[in-house]
Amino acid sequence: MPENIFQKIISREIPADIIYEDDLCLAFRDVSPQAPTHVLIIPKKPIKSIDQVADEDVELMGHLWLTIRNLANELKLEKGYRVVANCGWDGGQTVDHLHFHLLGGRLLSWPPG
Ligand code: AMP
């Protein structure tokens, strides 16, 4: 099965503006930013979407959320930010590798489209 684009970023087969990495996850700037700050946080484990998260992934999920918190702090999003995980067709997911969008740097409207 061919690797998707985020797996190729993890393996460095294609370049990305990586701003954080540890044993479990990677964070890089979105190639098509929807806000002044738009970062994607992904697990290195190949999980397709929230729908495919297993019970055994509970610590990994906690780690991703704490990483998001730390990045938001480092990126100085003190006025606020939004974390989005699109899931499946109706959710607007276009890359089949679990990812969290961290968006900030402007006032974000609600509800999303
Ligand atoms: P989603 O639509 O929730 O699946 O989000 C996928 C995101 O990945 C989109 O915001 C894209 O702009 C972004 N994206 C796709 N390819 C790349 C890439 N090579 N580097 C960085 N971001 C990417």
Describe the structure.
It contains three helices and five strands, in the order αβββαβαβ. With 113 residues, the protein is an alpha+beta fold. Strands 1-2-3-5-4 form a five-stranded antiparallel β-sheet, with helices on one face. The structure holds adenosine monophosphate. Adenosine monophosphate binds at residues 5, 16, 28, 30-32, 40, 86, 92-95.
Summarize this structure briefly.
This protein has 113 residues and is of the alpha+beta class.
Report the β-strand fraction as a percent range.
15-25%
**Which distinct ligands sit in these coordinates?**
adenosine monophosphate
State the low-pLDDT regions, or none: none
Number of strands: 5
Report mean pLDDT, rounded to a whole number.
Answer: 97
If helices are DSSP runs of H or I spanning 4 or more residues, what is the number of helices?
Answer: 3
Structural class: alpha+beta
Helix content: 10-25%
